[in-house]
Structure formats: structure tokens, C-alpha cells
Amino acid sequence: MSVAKKDYKKVTTNTLAEMKQNGKKISMLTAYDYTLAKIIDSAGIDVILVGDSASNVMAGHETTLPITLDQMIYHASSVVRGIDRALVVVDMPFGSYQGNSLEALSSAIKIMKESGGHSVKLEGGSEIIESIERILTAGIPVMGHLGLTPQSIYKFGTYTVRAKEEVEAEKLLADAKLLEEAGCFAIVLEKVPAQLAQKVAESISIPVIGIGAGAGVDGQVLVLHDMLGMTHEFNPRFLRRYLNLADDITGAVQSYVQDVKSADFPNEKEQY
């Protein structure tokens, strides 16, 4: 049993604030279905992100853009049914909050009511601050997301490290402070220089969770399918694979196929 699990029977936004204050690192992984959510929740994960990365790893799309609000709600509700302890954060998909704060509020309310999730996450800073503020007025907790924002891939044209230049770095720091002032309970920083990420984490009071943002932040997040080695197409520097399930599953299926074709399965003990 993890230390965090002993300390916190149920993780909330207040829990994360306390963890930052006490210098305890926050663990976060994605999940998109009941079975895997149940496993990682019981293993002691603090936060589960129902990421729009489901568009990639579950549906096979090239980007996160195609996934819809209803599809995100389907994945989120599946995750919520599998957890007892973790805080569940649901990504708001592309097109559900940009440019229209009333639509953003409507989308966030729909997610909370229909999925049972505990909070939502939006990508961007000053450009979407009106949407964030309106969602917060409804009492819905919001996690921010700065740095590399995959929903803006066609704007950036690349998935390379963000905020390496001074102007963009200054804007990122200003946006982080803006999100804190607006009332966000945490921020994800994706693929930014470690030194800058640490500066952001030290400059604001809310937790900063990194992905490709170095060790100087308050926690880490990875895509579950990547860290379990179920995917091999994606090999960024920040990814640590803890298993190689793609090979293990392939081997298991090949053994099953062989056993079926050779009439070894089922044997006498495996039938009625």
C-alpha cells in the first residue's frame, strides 16, 4: 500500500493542494475504461486523467482533435465506475470550449452530470480564460494545461518542446499565474524545459504536474498505454516504459492460437 493511499482515503482537489504544501509528489496516469481504471486506482494512483489521448490510443486517430464530447463522457463514465479513491479529471475535447464561454460552461456541465467525473481540464492560457472563469462560476473544478497543447497541433505544426525562447517562456509563466488567479486547482505542463517548469512550480501555489517537464514540478503524468509498453510508435525522451505489454500480449495470443489449432485447448479439466 502506498504512503499516499494511507494518508488519503479519497483524493480531492484539496488533497493535491496539501500534497504540494507538504512536498509530496503527485502521481497521475490516463485511463479510458473501467478495467484499467480499477487496476490503477487500487494500485494507489492519485489522479486519473480521462485524456483526449483516447482519440489516439483507443480510436487510432492521428491527433486528439476528432474525439467528441459524447465520446469523452463515455470513456469518463467507464473510468468513474472503476475507481474508489483517485481524483478523476476529464479532458474537454477540441471545439467544446474555445471561443465561446457559454458553450464551454454547457460542455463542462454535461461532462460533470453525465460522466460523474470530478473536474475538467482545458488547454490554453489567456486565450481561453473567459471559458475557464465561467466554468469555475458553476463550481466545477478546472485543471489548466500549458506548454505543448496537442489540440493546437495544426497551429504549432510540430510536437517539439515549447517555450524554449524567452518571449514564449515569459508568456507561459504569466499564463500559469493567470490560471492560478482565476481559480484553477492545478496545471499540467507538457514538454517544456525543466528549468522553466521548476520556476513555474515555485512561482505559484497550486500543483504543477509535468509530462516532459523535468523533476522540479509537483507531480508527473504519463499516458497509461505508453508506460505499460502497449504502444511503440511513440518514443519521446520523457517516456519511461515500465512493462512491454505489446510483446507479452502478442506472445499470449500466439500461444492461444496455437493451442486452439492443435486441439490442446480446451483440455479435459477445462470443460464441463
Task: Give a brief rundown of this model.
The protein has 272 residues and is an alpha/beta fold.
Give me the secondary-structure topology.
Layout lengths: L2 H5 L5 H9 L4 E5 L3 H9 L4 E4 L3 H4 L11 H12 L6 E5 L9 H15 L3 E3 L7 H9 L4 E6 L5 H4 L9 H17 L3 E5 L3 H10 L4 E4 L7 E4 L1 H4 L17 H17 L11
Helix pairs in contact: 3-5, 5-6, 6-7, 9-10
Describe what you observe in this structure.
The protein is of the alpha/beta class and 272 residues long. The chain folds into 2 domains: 3-241, Phosphoenolpyruvate-binding domains (TIM Barrel); 245-272. The chain has 12 helices and 8 strands. Strands 1-2-3-4-5-6-7-8 form an 8-stranded parallel beta barrel, surrounded by 7 helices.
- The CATH superfamily name of the largest domain is Phosphoenolpyruvate-binding domains
Main CATH class of the largest domain: Alpha Beta
Distance between the first and last residues' Cα: 39 Å
- For the CA atoms, what is the radius of gyration? 20 Å
Percentage of helical residues?
A: 40-55%
What general form does the structure show?
globular
State which percent range the strand residues make up. Answer: 5-15%
Strand line-up of the largest beta sheet: 1-2-3-4-5-6-7-8
Number of helices: 12
Low-confidence residue ranges: 1-6
**How many β-strands, per DSSP?**
8
Q: What is the average of the pLDDT values?
A: 94
CATH topology of the largest domain: TIM Barrel
Q: What is the count of structural domains?
A: 2
How do the SSEs run, as a string of H and E?
HHEHEHHEHEHEHHEHEEHH
What is the CATH architecture annotation of the largest domain? Alpha-Beta Barrel
Report the structural category.
alpha/beta
For the sheet with most strands, the description reads: 8 strands, parallel, barrel
